[in-house]
Every structure is written in structure tokens, then in C-alpha cells.
Amino acid sequence: MKKRINTSAKPKEQPSSPTEMSLPNASKQGLHDDLDLFEQFAVRNEGKQKTFVGARTQNCVIYTRVSTKEQADNNMSLETQLKHCQQYALKNQLNIVEKFGGTYESAKSDERVAFQNMLKFVKVKQQSSDRISYIIVYSTDRFSRSGANAIYIASELKKQGIAVISVTQPTDSYSASGNLQQNIQFIFSEYDNQLRREKCLAGTRERLLSGFWVTKAPLGYDQITRGQSQTITINADGEKLKLAFEWKASGMQTTDIADKLNLMGLKITAKRLSDLFRNVFYCGLLSHNQLDGKVIKGRHPALVDRETFLQANEVLKIKRPEFKLTPEDEALPLRRFVTCGSCGTTMTAYEVKKKRIHYYKCNKVGCKTNRSAMAMHEQFKALLNMYQIKPEYKAPLKLAIKDVINELQTASSQSAKPLKDNLAALKKKLEALEERYVIGDLEKDLYLRYSSKYRDEIRELEQEISGMVVNLSNLDHLLDKTLSVASEMQFLWQNGDFRTKQKLQKTIFPTGIAYDKVLGHYRTPKVNVIFELSRSLSGAIGHEKSGTLSSGEVRSALVAGTGLEPATFGL
């Protein structure tokens, strides 16, 4: 008898996959809730920017420095820096692995021996278990005064997990606002250097205008300079050079004169002798680049009279054509301003008259950098646009920059305190010396010797202290003028005359710019710190969602509030 097939029964459900076959319903539901299995399919960040992701340690190094040998010899400033850095490390439970510096090194360049040794040390330590996480300095200008280069070094250190911490100017360099503030401090350290240099140059000019020579006297003179007094006398070589001037004035060839001087024991080349014949110092006058082409009567003795000097130079006189501005010059404002990025030669220009097209070129044999003026002008305008700010940013930028300058002023005052203490101690010693001399306890020769020594030291300290104070007397005018230019520099360069363009170029890029023919763009070795700073701040404002910030918001983003705990800085 045949079996009856039940056609109404439902067919048995087959599992859809091996996974479902082996898992109960509850486990199937778990696949939807547990996301770990799906992370292998997640999109990864493949960006090129690498940041340090390891755990920070409590290890640190301390770096101290002063700028001059005199500061290093009295050791007051170095001791103060080290003391504060050690106290900071102790307060924040940091382990001091090594101390660097402790000597005098100028921070205008970062090719300093102790500084480089410190950088090598911390980088090597990053490969070991006891890596370094912090470099502690007294202030940011102790770390570097090189501006943009200091920012680059700090950024590279941060990628390796090493933060630069200033005891007197604490910032969290791992946060956006803290990093910006530290960068501004680096930029203004360079700005402070430039202010000191300007002040020093002003003093040099005043000395020259008073008839005093400010550097080493030329061949033929002995020089003794002590404080404001100066004694310059003619030596034996000077007497031989006096004969050389007389021989030249009579028509003798320079090479023959050089040969005669060599026989007399004065070793000199004809080329150097030609340069000496053109030096007005030998006829009692002063010529220096700080005198802007002027000649001043000096206080030193003349080697020869002016008539002999002019007669000696009559055969050396070269007639030079006067500079006359031509339409071609108006069309080529970058000539002699741009250098070749390959060989460093100043670029000249020429015109293809048939096509009426101008070109900039490098004349060095084998270099062959050659580029149309139109293309280079367009690229230069694009470069200016990088430093141009929006007009509405001027007011908040001015307030922000002034805040940072005031902060630097405070830091400078703190750095000057140990020097002021030393100055007061020296003045007390001088008073005691004078008192002993007056009452007869001290011989005159001893009094003169030591009083002169103390006065020289006092004068040097006073000059150093005065150089540490930033001059803010014309700051408002300077910032107004700079920010005004920064807001319309493209217009000024495109529509200005030749001299306006030249002045603008040299103001923004004081050492000129280089053109890289391989990459096809400009390199800017040095940028005026005010324009660099306004660009940095303007970028910070531009990244905000609203596009602008109030002056209070900009200031709060730049200057850390008082009373911030060390934890704010990631310690």
C-alpha cells in the first residue's frame, strides 16, 4: 500500500549560512549589537601628519643660557634661571635627567653648541624606555630668538612627544590656543632682538657723529677704548703707510708700492693696499654704513693730509654713470631684489624688444634661471596675499599684539632683576671705595685702578639693562601703520610707482626673497616679524566658525589667565 504524501505540510527551513546554522537566535541578535567584528572594515586616517601617540613620562631636561660672556662670568642670571627651572620641576614632580647650557650663546641662530647637544640628547632618549617629555626653560627667549625657525624646532619636538615649557610664560603647547601663544612668543623674541639691534645701531651712529670710531681701527693705528674714552695713535706700520700714500700721490703703481712695503717688513697685497688708499680714515675723517653716505671729522690723528689723500686717489678715480630711472626699471621692480634659489646670485632682467616682453634671469654661468617678468609678478602678488589681512581684523589684531608685547615686557623685567641687583652691589662697592679714599685709608693709585674698574662694569651693566627693555613709545603708530599696509599690500604693490614697490618689498622681506626655478615659487628667508605675526593671528581668527572674533576673544585665546595650574599644561 502506497504512503500518502501530506502536501499541506510546510517544507523544513534550510539555514542561510554556516554561521546561522551554528548560532542560536540570541547569538544572531548579538551580531547586530557587537560592533567589534566590523572594525576591520572601518576607514582609517591615512593622513601624512604624524603626531606622537605614546604615553608621556615625567622625565625632563633643563636648558639655560645668557647672551654675553660678561653675563656668564658674573653667573647671576644663569643661577636664577636654573633655580626657577628646578623649582618648577620639583613642584610638578618631574624627574630632571640632564641640564644643558649654563653658558653664553646668542639665540639669534639655532646653531649653538649646547643647544644642539640638548636636541641630540632628547632625540636619542626617545628611542629608549626613559624618554624625555619636557624641555624646561626660564622663558621662551632663552630657548630661541630665531622666530620662525624656533617655531619649526618646537613643532618637530612636539611630534616626538617633547614639549617646550617656559617657567615664566607657561602655555599648553598641545592645545590650539596654547600652541599659537607659544609661537607668538617665539616671533616676538626675534622682534625684541631686532629692537635691541636698532637701539644699538642708534648708539653707534651717535658715537660716529661725535667723531669716535666704533670698531677696530684700520692697519697703521693702535687703539685703546675704555667706556666713553678712546685713544687712537699711529704706530710703526702707520709710518710706512704714510710713505705709501706719498708714493701713490707721486704716481707710483700700487703693485710697486706693495713690493716696497713688503721689503720694509709690512706684508700687504696690492689689492688690499688699493682699498686702504680709498679709506678716508687715513686723512682724519670717518666713513661708516651707519652715516648714510656722510663723512664726519674724526677725533683720531690723520696719517696724511687731505690734499695728499686726494692726490693719491686721483689715479683710482672711476667715473660712474648716474642712475636714471627708465620705463624698463618701472616694469621690473623685482630686479636686484630677487636672488636665484639655486646659486644665490642676484637676478637681473632684460627685454625681448621684438615681443616687448621682459624677463628676469640669473647671469651666473651654468645656472640659466630665466623666467618671464609677468609670471614672476603674478607669483609675487600671490605671495603678498599670504600676508594680507582683512580690514575688519585690524582692531582685534592690534589689541592682541599689544597684549603679547606687554607680556614680553614683564618677562624682560624679570630677566633684568638679577642684573639690577648686581648693579646695586657694584655701586655700593664704588661708594665704599670713595669713602676709604677720602678718609685716607686707600692710596691714590689703588683708588684710581679699582674705581675705574667698577665704573666700567657699572656702565656695561646699565647698557645691558637698558637693552632688555622694549621701547613702547611709538608702538600704536607702528602697529597702525603696519596693519594698514598689511590690509592692502596687494593694491599698494600693483598700483604704486617703482619706489613704492621697492619700499614695500624691503619692508615685508628685509633680506630679499629667492626664486626656486625647480619648484617654480618664491622662498622667503626672512619676513618682518610684525607681518609674520599679523598673518599668524589673522589665520587664527579666520579658522573660527564665525569668520571673525571680538577683541576680547582674541586676547583670551592668546594670553593664558593667571593662576593656571600645572595640570592645564598636560603635566
In short:
The protein has 571 residues and is α/β, with parallel strands linked by helices.
Q: Which helices and strands appear, and what pairs or packs with what?
A:
Elements: H1 18-22, H2 25-33, E1 59-66, H3 69-74, H4 76-91, E2 95-104, H5 113-125, E3 134-137, H6 140-143, H7 148-159, E4 163-166, H8 176-209, E5 221-226, E6 229-234, H9 236-249, H10 254-263, H11 270-277, E7 285-287, E8 295-297, H12 306-314, H13 327-330, E9 338-340, E10 348-352, E11 357-361, E12 370-372, H14 373-387, H15 394-438, H16 444-467, H17 475-486, H18 489-495, H19 498-508, E13 513-516, E14 521-523, H20 529-542, H21 551-558
Parallel strand pairs: 1-2, 1-3, 3-4, 9-13
Antiparallel strand pairs: 5-6, 7-8, 10-11, 11-12, 13-14
Helix pairs in contact: 8-20, 9-10, 9-12, 10-11, 14-18, 15-16, 15-17, 15-21, 18-19
